[in-house]
Amino acid sequence: MSKWGKFYVSDVKKCFKVRRASISRDGRTVWLVCDVDHPMFSVVCSYDMQTNTFRVLIDGNDVAEEPDGTIRVCDKKSYPDPDDGRGAIWRDVWITSDGKIVREGKITLRGCEL
Protein backbone atom coordinates (compact mmCIF):
# COMPACT_ATOMS: atom_id res chain seq x y z
CA MET A 1 0.00 0.00 0.00
CA SER A 2 1.01 3.58 -0.45
CA LYS A 3 1.93 5.73 2.54
CA TRP A 4 -1.51 7.36 2.25
CA GLY A 5 -3.25 3.96 2.30
CA LYS A 6 -1.28 2.77 5.31
CA PHE A 7 -2.29 5.94 7.16
CA TYR A 8 -6.01 5.29 6.61
CA VAL A 9 -6.04 1.52 7.08
CA SER A 10 -6.16 1.93 10.88
CA ASP A 11 -9.23 4.21 10.56
CA VAL A 12 -10.97 1.69 8.32
CA LYS A 13 -10.20 -1.16 10.70
CA LYS A 14 -11.34 0.92 13.68
CA CYS A 15 -14.81 1.75 12.37
CA PHE A 16 -15.16 -0.52 9.27
CA LYS A 17 -18.30 1.13 7.97
CA VAL A 18 -18.78 -0.42 4.54
CA ARG A 19 -21.02 1.74 2.33
CA ARG A 20 -20.79 -0.40 -0.81
CA ALA A 21 -19.28 -3.73 -1.74
CA SER A 22 -19.03 -5.72 -4.97
CA ILE A 23 -17.20 -8.82 -6.08
CA SER A 24 -14.80 -8.69 -9.04
CA ARG A 25 -15.61 -10.53 -12.25
CA ASP A 26 -13.05 -13.22 -11.48
CA GLY A 27 -14.51 -13.72 -7.99
CA ARG A 28 -11.18 -13.14 -6.31
CA THR A 29 -11.51 -9.55 -5.03
CA VAL A 30 -14.13 -7.69 -3.04
CA TRP A 31 -14.18 -3.96 -3.85
CA LEU A 32 -15.30 -1.86 -0.89
CA VAL A 33 -16.16 1.78 -0.27
CA CYS A 34 -15.64 2.45 3.43
CA ASP A 35 -16.26 5.45 5.63
CA VAL A 36 -13.41 6.67 7.79
CA ASP A 37 -13.37 9.18 10.62
CA HIS A 38 -13.22 12.03 8.12
CA PRO A 39 -16.35 13.89 6.98
CA MET A 40 -15.05 14.94 3.54
CA PHE A 41 -14.33 11.59 1.87
CA SER A 42 -14.62 7.80 1.88
CA VAL A 43 -11.94 5.33 0.83
CA VAL A 44 -11.88 2.57 -1.77
CA CYS A 45 -10.44 -0.69 -0.51
CA SER A 46 -9.83 -4.14 -1.88
CA TYR A 47 -9.91 -7.50 -0.17
CA ASP A 48 -8.24 -10.38 -1.98
CA MET A 49 -10.04 -13.54 -0.85
CA GLN A 50 -7.28 -15.89 -2.05
CA THR A 51 -4.43 -14.20 -0.21
CA ASN A 52 -6.52 -12.75 2.66
CA THR A 53 -5.09 -9.28 1.89
CA PHE A 54 -6.90 -6.04 2.70
CA ARG A 55 -5.68 -2.78 1.12
CA VAL A 56 -6.78 0.85 1.21
CA LEU A 57 -6.25 2.11 -2.36
CA ILE A 58 -7.64 5.61 -2.92
CA ASP A 59 -10.38 7.97 -1.80
CA GLY A 60 -13.72 7.97 -3.62
CA ASN A 61 -17.47 7.46 -3.30
CA ASP A 62 -18.11 4.48 -5.56
CA VAL A 63 -16.16 1.76 -7.35
CA ALA A 64 -16.87 -0.39 -10.41
CA GLU A 65 -14.81 -2.82 -12.44
CA GLU A 66 -14.59 -1.81 -16.11
CA PRO A 67 -14.50 -4.21 -19.11
CA ASP A 68 -10.85 -3.25 -19.83
CA GLY A 69 -9.78 -4.42 -16.34
CA THR A 70 -9.40 -0.97 -14.81
CA ILE A 71 -11.35 0.06 -11.75
CA ARG A 72 -13.49 3.21 -12.02
CA VAL A 73 -13.51 5.25 -8.81
CA CYS A 74 -16.15 7.97 -8.71
CA ASP A 75 -15.61 11.34 -7.07
CA LYS A 76 -11.95 11.19 -6.09
CA LYS A 77 -11.04 14.39 -4.25
CA SER A 78 -7.79 16.19 -5.06
CA TYR A 79 -6.36 19.67 -5.47
CA PRO A 80 -5.30 21.30 -8.74
CA ASP A 81 -1.59 21.80 -9.33
CA PRO A 82 -0.87 24.63 -9.61
CA ASP A 83 -3.50 25.85 -7.16
CA ASP A 84 -5.95 28.23 -8.83
CA GLY A 85 -7.57 29.39 -5.58
CA ARG A 86 -10.94 27.75 -6.33
CA GLY A 87 -10.55 24.85 -3.88
CA ALA A 88 -10.63 21.09 -4.21
CA ILE A 89 -11.72 19.21 -7.31
CA TRP A 90 -13.70 15.99 -7.62
CA ARG A 91 -13.51 13.73 -10.65
CA ASP A 92 -13.76 10.09 -11.65
CA VAL A 93 -10.47 8.24 -12.03
CA TRP A 94 -9.57 4.82 -13.39
CA ILE A 95 -7.03 2.81 -11.41
CA THR A 96 -5.19 -0.47 -11.66
CA SER A 97 -5.89 -3.15 -9.07
CA ASP A 98 -3.01 -1.83 -6.98
CA GLY A 99 -4.39 1.74 -6.89
CA LYS A 100 -2.30 3.46 -9.56
CA ILE A 101 -4.28 6.10 -11.47
CA VAL A 102 -4.16 5.42 -15.21
CA ARG A 103 -6.82 7.87 -16.42
CA GLU A 104 -8.68 10.90 -15.09
CA GLY A 105 -12.15 12.10 -16.07
CA LYS A 106 -13.47 15.62 -16.31
CA ILE A 107 -13.83 17.69 -13.14
CA THR A 108 -17.39 17.26 -11.83
CA LEU A 109 -17.30 19.55 -8.77
CA ARG A 110 -15.14 22.39 -7.45
CA GLY A 111 -14.69 23.46 -3.84
CA CYS A 112 -15.88 26.94 -4.71
CA GLU A 113 -19.22 25.45 -5.82
CA LEU A 114 -20.01 23.96 -2.40
Overview of the structural elements:
The protein is globular, with a radius of gyration of 14 Å. The chain is built from one helix and eight strands; from the N terminus they run H-E-E-E-E-E-E-E-E. The chain is 11% helix and 50% strand. It has one helix at 3-15, and strands at 17-23, 29-35, 42-48, 53-59, 62-65, 71-78, 89-95, 101-110. Strand 5 and strand 6 (71-78) form a beta hairpin. It has 114 residues and is mainly beta. The mean pLDDT is 87. Strands 1-2-3-4 form a four-stranded antiparallel β-sheet, covered by helices on one side. The protein has a four-stranded antiparallel β-sheet with strand order 5-6-7-8, with no helix packed on it. The N and C termini lie far apart (31 Å).
Task: Give the key terms.
mainly beta; four-stranded antiparallel β-sheet; 50% strand; 114 residues
Series of H and E elements: HEEEEEEEE
Compute the average pLDDT.
Answer: 87
Strand content: over 45%
Overall helicity: 10-25%
Structural class: mainly beta
Work out the helix count: 1
Low-confidence stretches: none
Strand elements, count: 8
Rounded Rg:
14 Å
Specify the biggest β-sheet. 4 strands, antiparallel
Query: N-to-C terminal Cα separation, in Å?
Result: 31 Å
Shape: globular
Order of the strands making up the biggest sheet: 1-2-3-4
Short description:
The protein has 1 helix and 8 strands; from the N terminus they run αββββββββ.
Furnish the topology, listing elements before pairings.
Elements: H1 3-15, E1 17-23, E2 29-35, E3 42-48, E4 53-59, E5 62-65, E6 71-78, E7 89-95, E8 101-110
Antiparallel strand pairs: 1-2, 2-3, 3-4, 5-6, 6-7, 7-8
